[in-house]
From TrEMBL:
Lineage: Eukaryota, Viridiplantae, Streptophyta, Embryophyta, Tracheophyta
Limits of the GFO/IDH/MocA-like oxidoreductase domain: 149-264
One Pfam family linked to the record: GFO_IDH_MocA
Annotated ranges, domain Gfo/Idh/MocA-like oxidoreductase N-terminal: 9-129
UniProt name for this protein: Gfo/Idh/MocA-like oxidoreductase N-terminal domain-containing protein
Xref: InterPro entries: Gfo/Idh/MocA-like_OxRdtase_N, GFO_IDH_MocA-like_dom, NAD(P)-bd_dom_sf
Family to which this protein belongs: Belongs to the Gfo/Idh/MocA family.
Superkingdom per UniProt: Eukaryota
GO molecular function, one term: nucleotide binding
Amino acid sequence: MAAETSTPVRFGIIGCANIARKVSRAILLSPKYSTIVAIGSRSVDKAAAFAKNNGFPASAKAYGSYDAVLEDPEVDAVYIPLPTSLHLQWAVLAARKKKHVLLEKPVALNVGQLDEILAACESSGVQYMDATMWMHHPRTPHMKDYISDAHRFGQLKAVHSIFSYNCGGAEFLKNDIRVKPDLDALGALGDAGWYCIRAILWASDYQLPKTVTALRDVEFNEAGVILSCGASLRFEDGKLATFYCSFLSNLTMEISVLGENGFLRVHDFVIPFQENVGQFYANSNTKFGDLSIGVEPAPAECIVKTDLPQEALMVKEFSSLVRKIKEFGSESEKKWAIISRKTQVVVDAVKASIDKDFQPIDVVY
């Protein structure tokens, strides 16, 4: 790892999306690792206001274009929270300008676009990572340790995940970019389903399913954008996974993982209910109690504390990888590109099943 005296990675942010407020805060929470030197929007006034309202350093520059951020020689890396339809253009251009790329999810409209982004990053030797924040919470490896334990958990049999919310109401469903076909055509599948699919792959050690079948009764808006959907995933070894994602249901962020000997459930995997604490529940070798009154042993609550929120830990890990490249000539870490691509492949398969009257789709990596 780079020495603590190393220069922080200097971020430029392309776009003033609401999620950029959260990630810009995260960048500034680890000043030894990262700082913000530039923000670009379609107007300089909007960029300047964003910088002021979100506590950017006084030295941070506000630009009235995205290109200006990429041309700034002081920018080492860019965070891109633009609508998905713009990711291909700006992530590829950022990579060609030798800027490391932290890309908001969903990362692309399809795997063909993602392959172009990854090829540009590989050609320029820059680090790529998608901004799936829960992957970086210290709770996540604790959960992985449990479901990898042959005695306590055993062979994985099934996974189910839900991510839904209806926080925006009628205004969201009418005007948010996530329901606009020219901006985020994947709708709830791309925005919320991405998390569910990532959770299934994570639990499965990133083994891809053999087939994916979308569930019927998908809900669309008038423009044909998905507002809710679900799918079942069949694996070669017989395990089964399902998920449901929606813009029309109460806020829910669940992963349930079933093994031969154990069961894990987490109620807030996308965004922890408390910023500095992550909880999950685990059962092992559970039996009904006497007269089938209750179960034995009772589920154990596991509590994992963290000094930094998961998005700051994400930025810290990304910055550490960038510093290794900058200061030691290391190659970029490829695992994040592989995980992104596998997630996108399954997203594509769900969309293809919906488009083909809910037929099973073979998953090809």
